[in-house]
Write a structure and sequence with these properties.
mainly alpha, 7 helices
């Protein structure tokens, strides 16, 4: 039976070591393995080799799923991988179970439970830090976009509102420059005309 079992990402050695620490039977180890992979309690009972008719296997699956050994194995597996079967213990439940195991009398079980709790806490801290960093980055992006949009809208609004005034001012500047250019061209001729007019002999009427 062992050769046909897919031990998943944790591997056979992990499951057997964890099972030994939890004083689980061979059937409970196999049951917990398949339960961790998402199989139903009845399916896990069949895979683990529980015998009997459908009703008997269903009852055996229910008892195994709620046994201390299987629940402890599932809690450790969930702490190790971050994954767990649907309808099984939640992360809070896993921490509660591990906390109870950490207060037990078996030193090996206590050590394993404490290590699993420490891993859960570490993963949760890292997740919170990533979420906080992502939230801050998103906030900066949103703020930056809002500021850019506001600036663009202000510039566009000012351009539309002052377009006529700016055009008038530019026209006046251009007209003044043109007048100055014309005056500079005509100024010698005007001076000459004034001089000639002054030097003309007076002719009494």
């Amino acid at each position: 039976m062992t050769e046909e079992i897919d031990w998943g990402e944790l591997g056979e050695s992990w499951w057997r070591e964890a099972g030994a620490n939890r004083h689980a039977t061979e059937q409970q180890i196999i049951f917990a393995l398949h339960r961790h992979k998402g199989m139903t309690a009845t399916g896990c009972a069949r895979a683990a080799g529980y015998a009997g008719d459908d009703a008997t296997i269903r009852q055996a699956g229910h008892r195994a799923a709620h046994s201390t050994a299987v629940m402890g194995l599932l809690s450790m597996a969930k702490a190790e991988t971050g994954k767990g079967p649907d309808g099984n213990v939640t992360m809070d439940e896993a921490k509660q179970i591990l906390s109870r195991l950490a207060r037990g009398s078996d030193p090996n079980v206590r050590i394993k439970a404490i290590e699993s709790l420490a891993k859960i806490e570490k993963d949760e801290r890292e997740l919170n830090m990533r979420q906080a960093g992502t939230g801050a980055l998103l906030g900066r992006v949103i703020t930056g976009r809002a500021m850019a949009r506001s600036t663009a809208e202000i510039v566009e609004s000012l351009s539309e509102a002052d377009q006529a005034a700016v055009a008038k001012i530019m026209a006046r500047i251009e007209l003044a420059l043109e007048r100055r250019r014309l005056i500079s061209i005509l100024e010698p001729y005007i001076r000459q005309w004034i001089k000639e007019e002054i030097n003309k002999p007076f002719a009494p009427e």
